Fold this sequence. Notes:
Distance between the termini of chain B: 40 Å
Radius of gyration of chain B: 21 Å
Number of strands of chain B: 0
Structural class of chain B: mainly alpha
Largest interface: A-B, 41 and 61 residues
Oligomer: heterodimer
Number of domains of chain B: 1
Strand content of chain B: under 5%
Amino acid sequence: MSDLTPPQTATDTNAVARVVRAALNEDWLATAVGLLLVALVLTGVIPTGLVP
Amino acid sequence: MVATEEDLAAPPAERPARTWPWLVLGVLIVLVLGSVARFLEDTIPAAAKGTSLEKFAAAVEYPIYAIVLGLIGNVIVYFTGLRERIADAVFTEFFIKTGLVLLGASINLSLIVKAAGPAILQAVLLISSVFLITWYLGGLLGLDEKLRALLSAAVSICGVSAAIAAAGAVRAKREQLAYAASLVIIFALPSIFLLPWLADLLGLSPAVAGAWIGGNIDTTAAVTAAGAIAGEQTLQIATIVKATQNALIGIVAVALTAYFAFKVEKDADAQRPGLRQLWDRFPKFVLGFIAASAIGTWYVGSVSAAEGKAHIAVINDLRTWFLILAFVSIGLQLRVSALREAGWRPVAVFGGATLANLAIGLGLASILFAGFTV
């Protein structure tokens, strides 16, 4: 299936590596933001009625 | 700045320059579309009350408004030439993962513990069988080994995230990852509406429906959308099952790394993958989901019922916002051009594997979650 197997280039490797790194960073960021929001609500910093 | 599938679809020289103003504009577009979805979800059922559309309007949940608005936005940004410029602002994975961490706060930790056994068993059986079926179909239709690995991981585990992990493991080409990501989204979109409808038609309990949806729909965002349409209990089980599958990405990525290094590329100098790689590939938001559940369970048990309920309701409102933004982003991200370039064979492999996934998943969910109460 030649149309699906062009030779792999350094750009390919870099692009894939960049997406893999981004996915790993997003995991930590989502965890931190999610837990921070939970903490802000439970401590009353984000009060009831503020979120539409 | 976060890299996206678009980085894989076009070489750097062909991509428009990305600057902060475009990023801000992109975020604004996602926020405006999300706000419109939230507004429609609030106002349409009330406006339709007493009319012939009352039942229909009440049945249309926020994921539907968000996805449809995202698709409309997709067409608009395509024809105005903005689509590639704002691509970096479409943080689908971040929105969905943050939404799932917030969802954890409303799920009692005991439910996660109770569902963990059947969820792990279902994940192991489903991932193994569907991975092997997809691998076999890919071989039958003559797909490249790396594309076979990507499609097998995407169908059997959790869509785009698994395809990204597998692409890193087998050092796939960027076009292959773009095909796999596009296939995941194109197949997931109809599943969002089809599976809740089928679950209702088959009279599945919320637990079985949740396990079926969580085990079948490839991408986590689409699982959450389908679960939200089917109901809160279904959403909770679907999320636990999907999070379990997500947690197994690392094992599959490490196995693929070893297989490609030693069997396919026969690299004698390759190092054996170890525990470090397993940890690197583990989706950390699953830890956030469990931590939020533990915090929420402790909090609700330590304050009055009214106070606990009010605060969890605010967290649920925040969760709905993040999920709406994720669903808008799914609509905005849809690309059909990659499929045209891929040809019919990857589509046929993905379609065949999805059908197998549906049948095996329904069987496993019906057996493992029979009599399970949420």
